[in-house]
Amino acid sequence: MTHSVSRRDFLARTGLIGCSLAASPLLTPVSFAAAPWDTRFVVIILRGGMDGLDVVRPYGDPAFRALRGTMSPGPEGGALDLDGYFALHPTLAPLMPMWEAEQLSFVHAVSTPYRDKRSHFDGQDLLEAGTESMAGVRDGWLNRMLQVVPGVTSQTAFALGRNDMRLVQGAAEVANWTPQAELDLSPQAVRLLELVTESDPAFHAALSEAQILSSVEANDDERLKGEHMEIAKFAAARLSEDARIAAFSLNGWDTHAGQERYIETALARLADTLITLRGKMRGNTWSKTAVIAMTEFGRTARQNGTRGTDHGTGGLMILAGGAIKGGRVFGQWPGLGEGDLYLDRDLMPTRDVRAHAAWVMRGLTGLDRGVLESAVFPGLEMGDDPGLLL
pTM of this prediction? Predict the structure, then answer.
């Protein structure tokens, strides 16, 4: 169930009249829900298929440099060494204090059950539904989680953006707030263009580049003061009070061409968001918080001819917060050598990303494993506890 609050009502109630919260093409809704436990859970959907091999670079794998050429270099090219095998994209340098404080981790070689067709829309739907297929599925896994917890209310529930997230759709009450926005193209027009062009790699890449360019060139000064910062500040304030769960998304990860430039913009926004969440949470809230950032699929292991990467399979999950076991790169690394890649093109997934999300939820809320495997993520086999939380 959803409740809507107008932009003016929201600004009046929160004292933000006069502040600009114009909608950004890189953002979709943020939702909040109160819950009876004291920990905080933040889910960020990274829309567009983030290249995990560029974000956390396996420079210790002998095959990596051959696949990437001069793109995505290791420490010799400015990446930040994490553990002698993996190195962090230099744009995420502001997050190194979190890594060193053991409040930042990564999980490599994860994916949903989605395979082979590599459609953003299908991939995102499956990621947010949390199921093995979309047959008969109308709600999202975060909403189903709220449905099975007794005493959950939506005393504080807001969404910033223009479109609902499947992740929070369902019978449990989650309210959404959508700012008034004036864009050259309506959300419906943009989605239609994306659907029409997705089957043609050249047109799809051109549209992705145009969308990223429009945000980079028109909003370059807003990276540090943009809507993602407003969302993070508001999220931190609400999570410091009654809210226990927050969910929102950041776009801009579809890097078919010129990836080195465009991924920097997306990573800078992500870094800003995490730093603001941590910095603006009051008291000891951050110490009780787990943030997970997930994407619908990874990208190809090999760079393409336009210094980009195409839609792939295995990807990366990012974890942050005082409640997570930081300073680690989790996951079973499959290797990138001959015979190691999925269909000889993608990072091989070695674990279901839903299992990691389920273990985080179990640790934060105490939900029974059977409930998580049957009601929240139907059909999931969680496997052994990967030890993502303290």
Answer: 0.84
